Amino acid sequence: MTARLPIITTRDLRRLGACAEQVTLFRKTFGGSAVVSLANARKAAEVGLDANWIATRTLTAPAQAKYYKVTAAARAEYDRVTAPARAEYDKVTAAALAEYSKVRAAPRAEYDKVRAAARAEYDRVTAPAQAEYDKVTAAAQAKYYKVTAAAQAEYDKVTAAALAEYSKVAAAARAEYDKVTAAAQAKYYKVTAAAQAEYDKVTAAAQAEYDKV
Asked: Do 54 and 60 form a contact (C-beta atoms < 8 A)?
């Protein structure tokens, strides 16, 4: 007795999160369902369906094995037919790349030589100006840090007492808030927990019915 081939449906695709375009393309190509076969695998590939995505998400392990067994022949045939063209392509591109590298080697070396000399000259010319800049900015920066350090210390001194008072008042207010809202919060969690349990109960039955269909 011949084993029955696995079937994929549009319902399977939607349930597993396939995009709308793929579902539409599947329906347009196969209707509401299709069996896993070499002919259908080829047809799916021709129209742009992601057959591997479909197989790995809709088929059981035994069915996946059957799918890959079926498509392996098509893949082997594809590799066999395209092998000579691929070899010729690799041969041509390898030669072209070698010639390209050969032609650009001398100009690249000359470019690097000129660029290095230009950079050295730039560094030589700008070195005195850079040294003077560093000298001037170092003094200005030191003076800036000296002035701001004193200002920061005064700021910290003035705000420390205010911050401590704020923290004290805020802590007391938070404690009072937690005390007042604790009972209401507990009641809220109790009510929502019961509502969530009822929701889960109702939707579980609906989900089971949906999966069954």
From this structure: no
